[in-house]
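Co-fold these.
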Amino acid sequence: MEEEVALATRRRGPGLALAGTGLVCGLAYTAEALRYPVGSVQAPGPGLFPVAVGALLVGTSAVAALAAWHRPSAPPEALGPFAWRIPALLGVLAGCGWLLGTAGFVVAATLLAAVVLALERQRPAWAVLLAAVAISGATAFAFRLLGVPLPGVPL
Amino acid sequence: MEALAGLMGGFAVLAEPANLAALAAGCVFGSLVGVLPGVGPVGAMAILLPLSFTLEPSTAVILLAGIFYGAQYGGSTTAILLNIPGEATSVVTALDGYQLTRRGRAGPALFVAAVGSFVAGTLAVAVLMFVAPLLADAAVKFGPPEFFAITAFGLMLLARLTGGSLPLVAMLVAIGLALTTVGLDQTFGKSRFTFGVVELFNGLELVAVAVGLFGIAEVLSALERRVEAARPARLRLRELLPSGEEARRSAGPMLRGAVVGFPFGLVPGPAVILSTFASYGLERRLSKRPQEFGSGAIEGVAGPESANNSAAVGALVPLLSLGVPFAPPTAILLGAFVLHGIQPGPLLAVEHPEVFWGLIASMYAGNVMLLALNLPLIGLFVWLLRIPRDVLLALVVVLSFVGVYSVNNSTVDLYVMTAMGALGWGLRKFGLSPATLILPFVIGALMEKSLVQTLILARGDPGYLLTRPIALVLLALGIAALLGPALLSRRGGSRRLAQ
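Predicted complex below.
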């Protein structure tokens, strides 16, 4: 009996977490939407559509939570063996976004390419750096050739 | 006759060197994108969208459309050779295509896939040429209630047709609509959900959202897994020709695939993928040798590959005639139109005939070009599959990075891309499709504007909708599609309980 309860909880957990996240986001979104003038049905304001969407989000999340409780669906796909690479790349992407404005495109793109290559761990450090410089250099050249301005890349 | 005159004008537009070059580039790049697993046409189109700034509108649209339908050709290559579908639309092709490869018939399978794509694509463009202007003529009379109803109908159908839990899918649709409300509201000019960030006044950038959801999310999924390197067998050109019997067995499925696929393109969501399953099911039902399906039936390649190309063309009808994209690639095409100051919709063929007919002419020529390219270049595509995975992933990430940044020269767009990448990766974990988010994001602005205008026109009169029968019927159909199956299954369950 305890095992069954534990199994049911495990099956419900991910679905409830997803629906719960939607519910929280929906409530926060609706609360912010109510700060804008909603108007009326005859004379709608800029807040009317967001409030309607917020209500839809809250409603569907609540129904999804109920569905996850009564009829748990298949669990989400398990994390892969290299799941740690996900936050690593996301962090580097955001960081390179900041670096782009200060150090220019070539530096930011080289760092980004180097991190992706290094995460795969298929080649030595010098090859990673060489490939990263080649990728960022070729991309910068191609985009400049097409007339797209990039920070730190000369005309 | 008007359509033929328009088409002649379109070919004249296409004959310009820049447009021919864009067509060739789009077709080749699209085929590459289709061949290489992990880089889809939506991500590729979104990355190249900023580059199209410097091009003429017709050239930009021809380039991006070339990538869209070129990817349908290329996706079958890895599906047949390696049992790895290059695109989701080639999943069904892999079922019998790979089995044909194992029996030494890879060449004929590739040949039939390419010819089927060409036949269906060409027939579908011929239908598009007549259907789109007809629908556009009817849609000129549409007002805000009809456009609101079309967008609402599209989203309800999207929620029903996308697999999985309906409440979760509806939740995603709501999130997509919520994302569209960020920025200055179109009707009242009020800044919403910007929290003082100036770069968000124009809303979330489509390219950032699309590249994040489709491109970065795919890279994250690939990095998470350990994947063995693909080593496809070498193939010679002379080994491509099918036998007489294979050719005879492929003809019917190709034509049926063209007919089956086109209507699916008119429907929102994963319609192109659904068309391949529908075609496969039909061919198995009609075949005199149904037991061969799954073990290397050539019909199982010919039908689905024709259907997906036909559906891809069909997907252009709502965009070109109504200005409403029902598929993620056409959502990016809408972005291209808007970027160049063109509003697709009922008046597109009248106000910008060079863009409308130039695009249609390019699709005729593009199908010929893709047939001519895909067979001789199979050796090159197979060689490209040997590109080290880490190099390919690094290239995709850097291209995404520069592509998104170059739209507005804004680092906020890069942060949006990163956040969307994380969201897209998370959605895949739960078996949810990013398309369910991007379509409401793209059509949400039109939906809001139409709704507000409808409410103003109605002045609080609930009977106003009764004077707009098209809108009423569309809304009723959407509600029926959304709730009907659930109500029917509940009634069936009650009957069984009563018995």
